[in-house]
Design goal:
132 residues
Length: 132
């Protein structure tokens, strides 16, 4: 599947085989799909075996675990920090088309106001991650 779609698959995993997203030598490929497992079990054995890389986000302080939505948001933010060019280059028209497809109607003037940061975040999340 990786070669078929021309992207790397990264799976979140807490095993010793995983690479920290704080590793300063880590580089993000041009196309990457990040798979987040279930909160209790993590990624399936099949996903872990198919993944090109296993990654994790170290926790600091008193937290021992994160809710899946929080973990996904922090990992995506970290990937964008490592690779800012991954934010995408959709035109305003392409963003508007996606808004209509996703929301089932026209947007309420965000493009006209020049504030498309929310759409950039949504687009980045959608194009760089896959959840299970």
């Amino acid at each position: 599947i990786n070669a078929e779609y021309g992207r790397e698959i990264w799976a979140t995993d807490l095993s010793p085989a995983s690479i920290s997203l704080e590793d300063t030598t880590l580089s993000v490929p041009t196309k990457v799909a990040v798979v987040f497992g279930r909160e209790a079990e993590g990624c399936s054995k099949e996903i872990l075996e198919a993944a090109d890389r296993r990654v994790y986000l170290p926790l600091h302080g008193f937290a021992e675990s994160l809710n899946i939505s929080v973990a996904a948001a922090l990992i995506i933010q970290r990937l964008l920090h490592i690779c800012p060019e991954a934010k995408g280059d959709l035109t305003s028209q392409e963003k508007e088309k996606l808004r209509i497809e996703w929301c089932g109607g026209e947007s309420k003037g965000r493009e006209a106001e020049g504030d498309d940061s929310e759409m950039e975040a949504m687009t980045t999340t959608t194009t760089t991650t896959t959840t299970t």
